[in-house]
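Researcher: Next entry in the queue.
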Amino acid sequence: SRLLQAFPLPSLPRKQPTVLVVCGPAQNGAIGLVCARHLRIFDYEPTIFYPKRSPDPLYRDFTTQCEKMDIPFLSYLPTEVQLINDAYNAVVDAVLGAEAEVGEGREPCAAILATLKHIRIPIVSLDVPSGWDAESGGSGGISPDVLVSLAAPKECARRFLGRQHFVAGRFLPYDVQKKFELNPPEYPGTECVVAL
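Model: Structure for this entry, 196 residues:
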């Protein structure tokens, strides 16, 4: 599944081991949980903030896997952004993604985005930066330093002005690539992530 093949992220050097992974209630949050697990496997020190947990059994399994790997879960996200800046080297934004059914205005997502807009450490957004419209981009969201598009860049990626853009996952069936006229990048060797 695309969830399992999205990481690790080669863009995070070992000298930046502490990562806050902020997960929303839908699919992008589940991808964030998988991301945290992979970061832990590769000797990073992830911490997860997952305030609205999905009842979906698969997502519960991902949560349990993270707990069994001793990845800490925050009970609240500090609104004092300096606390986040001081405690972590980067934030993974897995709050909203491309899921249209989770509106930016709904809690706890709006409060999370209000905080993420003000932090100074790098933000790595998964698939679609939270608060962006997947098609048009929009300016109501955050401004990530790194974008990791899953399967293929979404239309909004044209508006991404950050430092690095990656595509993760070499799992698109050929018929899907052909149907949507996708031209996926060449993945070097056995890599599942490629820089654009």
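Model: The radius of gyration is 16 Å.
Researcher: Noted, moving on.
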